[in-house]
Amino acid sequence: MWLRVSALVLRYLFLYRRSLARAGEIVFWPVMELLVWGFLTTYLDELSPKKPMVYLLGGLIFWDVLYRSQQAITLAVTEEIWVKNLLNIFLAPVSIFELMLATCIMGIIKSLLTGVLLSVLALLFYTFNILDVGLALVPFLICLLLFGWAMGMCTMALVLRFGQAAEALVWGVPFLIQPISAVFYPVAVLPPWLQVIAKLLPSTYVFEGMRTALDTGEVSLSLLGLALLLNLIYLVGAAAYFGWMFARVREKGGLTRLGME
Amino acid sequence: MPFEPGEWAPLGPAPGMVYSRFPKHRRGETGVPAAPVIDVTDLTKRFGDLLAVDRVSFALAPGEILGLLGANGAGKTTTLQLVLGLTAPTSGRIRVLGMDIEKKRRAVLQRVNFSSAYISLPTNLTAWENLLVFSRLYGLRRARAKILGLLERFEIPHVLNRVVGSLSSGQITRLNLCKALLNDPEVLFLDEPTASLDPDIAEKVRCTLLDIQHERHLSIIWTSHNMQEITNLCDRVIFLARGRVVLEGGPQEILDRTRADSLDEVFISVARSGNLHLPAVEATAPASAGIP
User: Fold this and answer.
1) How much is the pLDDT for B31?
2) CB–CB of B247/B270 below 8 Å?
3) A187-216: per-residue pLDDT in tens?
4) What is the residue extent of each domain of chain A?
5) Within B158-198, where are the H helices?
6) Domain assignments of chain B as residue spans, ordered by start
7) Which CATH code fits B35-111+228-292?
8) What whole-number distance in Å separates Cα of residue B122 and Cα of residue A201?
9) How far A87 CA lies from chain B's nearest CA (Å)?
10) pLDDT tens-digit profile of B45-74?
11) Residues of B at the A interface, defined by Cβ within 8 angstroms
12) For residue B204, pLDDT beyond 70
């Protein structure tokens, strides 16, 4: 199994080594985002006595981990469709689990690369230290990775089912949940009915927990526990949804259509 | 010196021998037909109201080359998808190398391979990177010698470190075939492997493939719209129309039976009428689904 998983990881690493555009996805956009938000928060810090920079930059770096994790899964499949290699992959003795595992490993690699890069730049440019989050940093990041995988599986299922017509979802789905995940502001600022939805997302508890940790230096175990529990539910649900959708795609002959379209 | 087909290809058949002169399907030393490597029984696939494959049955013997023919929309691509387990059948049974494709798909895929003119290897990776990844996907740990040997065999060793996107279509086709042979498959599915190739490269590809098929007693399902190629290569052909097998037999047997001058003529007749309506012949019921 590990030989096949490592082969798939190698395939994606070769891609990033050969393609500046793909590498830019890991470096260019996150850095540009950091610069814009960083300078904006520097300005806001001057205006506000509450110093919002730590919340905004912390939220930005955490958000990018979630986003890269989701992207790694969906872009892996979308890439195979773009280069007409999907059938070669599905006609090799690779299980869906192995494919998922490889893309999840890519998610970890991409999230780590981007996260470390942004953290270093935030420290250099804005003296913001992500390690101020404290001990909660690692479990919170794991929660975001897990939620990114769950979202990635759902998006990948939709891409397999609807093909290139669903490609907008690859980029769109994370932004659907961003406003209600309380990334840059507390969940309390949302209207009450939206707070109910927000509390169904594990990401909300992570961002709330991050702000608590930055404020008090303490880890909220209840927030962490809720995030992990919800992640478990979302992962099981996403895997089941993917399995169901994949069976439907096989029934409709969608793999060949996608592989040749 | 006048050009002699076959002379340019030391990797092909013996000098002076072109692919059409290769011995066709052999039953083995004992003359007893071996168990089929592919056994399809009453295969049916329905997409909503459309009956894409309608009770198709056929078998492929070890070392046999079977041509799967039909006009666009006749059902041959769907049949291939079903046999490879890419699409789930509505009903019927598919056994490949003695295994049920629905239950043992990965075990089957480890021992078969596929190449199509219509799918590609990632164009942004080099030939070496692509073949390295696929060799690992097929469980080969030390694949360098194998990869180099296959590239040599298809006369493209110089593309090793070139990005696939910079290769000609002929080189890409041959690279796809190298990928398809990495795992020493027992059954090879070739979907129009010579489509869009110039006659010279097409001939080289056919020769090399036949050479390998001959050495390894490889079973091949070959789809093509080039009837001359099918006539020369295949031991047996199946014509599909509207999802059904309308004609089956050896190329010469079909020509004798239909009294057509060429398989092109048979193809056109089947494609236009959905069945066989050649002037001198009554529609012939498909031959038995078993191995001839």
Assistant:
1) 52
2) yes
3) 999 999 999 999 999 999 999 998 888 888
4) 2-260
5) 169-181
6) 35-111+228-292
7) 3.40.50.300
8) 36
9) 7
10) 999 889 999 999 999 999 999 999 988 888
11) 45, 47, 52, 77-78, 81, 84, 86-88, 106-107, 109-110, 113-114, 116, 118-126, 129, 132-134, 136-139, 141, 163, 179
12) yes
